[in-house]
Amino acid sequence: MEIFNLERAEPAYDDSDPEGYRAGMDRFGKRIGASRIGGSVYELPEGQSICPYHYEYPREEWLLVLSGAPTLRHPGGEEQLERGDAVCFPAGPEGAHKLTNTGSEVSRVLMISTLEDPSVGIYPDSDKIGVFVSDDHEEVIVRRSSDVPYYDGET
Fold it and tell me: What is the pTM for the complete model shown?
């Protein structure tokens, strides 16, 4: 059995992330032997978000605030969260969310999700759809407006 201590997580930052989305991440699910549930600790400096507003199919995600007071955008509006708050984002539009650190203190959160593959992310603000396969690291992200007929390109 492998053990991961959430308080000793070491989130790494990706220099290619754009301003507004510069959050550190320590993905640890596989390191503790998980295969059906993923876990990541995110570190959110002031003014940064984990990812754009989105929802997913078929994945369910959970959020637990470890420190700080991030702001959660969801279909009903916005909520200021605090340490110890837990939230479930079900699959589909009712689970849409975006987490942003609007405070001056760095926030840390734990995100846990189911790992069904493939997964589909819907980004309502930018009219995008993404299809992701975790093991193969394959992904495609397109705008909904690029829709083509089902038999387009077939002979």
Answer: 0.92
Nearest Cα residue to 84 out of 65, 107, 108, 112: 65
Number of H helices and E strands in the chain, helices first, is 0, 12
Go through 96-112 and write b for each residue having 16 or more CB atoms within 10 A of its CB, e for each that does not.
bbbbbbbeeeebbbbbb
Q: ω into residue 70 within 30 of 0, thus cis?
A: no
Cis peptide before 118 (omega within 30 of 0): yes
**Spatial separation of the C-alpha atoms in residues 141 and 85, rounded to whole Å:** 31
pLDDT for 34-79, tens place per residue?
999 999 999 999 999 999 999 999 999 999 999 999 999 999 999 9
